[in-house]
Write a structure and sequence with these properties.
Strands 8-7-18-19-20-17-21 form a seven-stranded mixed sheet. Strands 12-2-1-16-22 form a five-stranded parallel sheet, covered by helices on one side. The two termini are 24 Å apart. With 389 residues, the chain is α+β, with helices and mostly antiparallel strands. The chain is built from twelve helices and 22 strands. The protein folds into three domains: 203 residues, NAD(P)-binding Rossmann-like Domain (Rossmann fold), CATH 3.40.50.720; 87 residues, no CATH class; 56 residues, no CATH class. The structure holds uridine-5'-diphosphate. Uridine-5'-diphosphate (UDP) binds next to helix 6 and helix 7. The site of uridine-5'-diphosphate has 13 residues, from helix 6 and helix 7.
């Protein structure tokens, strides 16, 4: 069987691209996935108790991008869901992002009132202030508040998550969880916030369920596809492949003698407990004393009648190739960004070879970013093809 395109990786990015190529271009697409399942890290499944769990930690679709929402909505119905997170600070639970309720829980009524007035005065009601920005304030009340939040919410969590202090990582990372000058206790404020009514795996399965798409699981790329670096050609089953290759893995694994790109990884501990409810919201963050960063209770994500409950603990760790953990978050050091750029340039010598997605493009993508990026990459490909015709 001859294929027009090979997609390496059946995660969200690979699935969007495969679906677009089959549906819009009428291409025959081979998708190779090394895991035993599709859907990448947003893979979810019913555990032995019938509770829908996310094997690789909680995945939540939140987006303000109409194109992404409309596109995904052709493959799934939705179950509306607004994510709420609490953090355990000095033995009390406070809303995260840290908001006006959090201030009232952590400070005396008098001080909380003064801090809230100062925040409103400086930033305006409803604004969102990155912690590293708030930390620049010299006014005593705001400086005290910033120091409290920095110490209790960000420093230790970030050291666990990234292995370094908040000021040593890109400011956009901690800015994802700003201090919120309102009582809105939702984790995200995007227009669309929902979970696929039958889960992410079912959604991705619907994307790949096209007669022109063949998915092979348990198939590492090397079993079928090889890069011939001497002639800059892609080989499929040992034969020259002139179609498009969409690659969603790590670039360093393809380039001869490349140094490993650094990533942070996560280890997950799934547990089932014979209690009705473990915690009041889907996710509780543990910024300080515990080795894990957060616990997610799946009951809060998708309704279940089960009397017990299933939870997952997340333990950040270093990514070591060959150990039994997957790479999650790129570490954006200058040398890593430069190395990634070099590998990308080397791979650009292969015609019709497209690196795509979080791993291949070395990006910190939310799910909607991954979909938007894949849709954009597809449109670029479509343009090139119509131009060549
Ligand atoms: N963060 C923190 N304390 C928290 C929540 C987040 O220090 O309670 C910081 C931490 O550096 C984290 C970043 O904010 O990596 C982004 O958090 P987010 O929840 O967006 O991370 P993700 O869900 O992508 O792992």
């Amino acid at each position: 069987m001859s294929f027009d395109a090979v997609v390496i990786g059946a995660g969200l990015s690979g699935a969007v691209m495969a679906e677009r190529m089959a549906n819009v271009l009428n291409w025959k697409v081979l998708v190779l996935e090394q895991r035993e399942h599709i859907a990448g890290n947003c893979f979810d499944e019913n555990d032995e108790f019938g509770i829908n769990v996310h094997r690789y930690g909680p995945h939540l679709l939140h987006s303000s991008n109409n194109d992404v929402w409309d596109y995904l909505s052709t493959f799934t119905a939705w179950h509306p869901y607004q994510h709420r997170v609490l953090a355990k600070i000095n033995d009390i639970l406070v809303p995260i992002p840290f908001n006006l309720t959090s201030i009232e829980r952590c400070f005396s009524p008098q001080k909380a009132t003064a801090m809230i007035s100062a925040l409103r005065e400086h930033y305006g009601d409803g604004s969102k202030v990155p912690i590293l920005e708030l930390k620049q304030r010299v006014e005593p009340l705001l400086a005290e508040l910033a120091e409290f939040i920095y110490r209790n919410v960000f420093v230790n969590y970030t050291c666990k998550q990234w292995g370094v202090a908040p000021d040593e990582i890109a400011p956009e990372v901690t800015a994802r969880v700003p201090v919120v000058v309102s009582y809105d206790d939702r984790y995200f404020s995007d227009t669309y916030q929902a979970l696929p009514s039958k889960g992410f795996t079912a959604m991705v399965s619907a994307m790949l369920a096209h007669p022109l798409i063949t998915v092979e699981l348990n198939t590492p790329m090397a079993r079928r596809v090889r890069l011939d670096w001497e002639h800059h050609q892609v080989l499929l089953d040992g034969e020259l492949f002139n179609g498009h290759t969409i690659y969603t893995g790590m670039l360093d694994t393809l380039v001869p003698d490349a140094q490993n790109l650094p990533y942070r990884a996560l280890k997950f501990k799934h547990k089932h407990l014979n209690i009705k409810e473990f915690q009041p919201v889907a996710t509780v963050n543990y910024p300080n004393d515990e080795a894990y960063t957060r616990i997610t209770e799946f009951k809060h994500l998708s309704p279940t009648k089960h009397v017990g409950t299933s939870v997952v603990y997340e333990y950040p760790c270093e990514y070591q190739p060959k150990e039994n953990v997957d790479p999650y978050y790129p570490l954006f050091t200058d040398s890593a960004i430069a190395a990634h750029c070099t590998y990308r340039n080397q791979l650009s010598k292969f015609a019709r070879f497209i690196p795509l997605g979080r791993l291949a493009e070395y990006r910190y993508f939310d799910m909607d970013d991954a979909v938007a990026n894949a849709l954009k990459t597809f449109l670029k490909l479509q343009d090139q093809i119509s131009f060549q015709r």
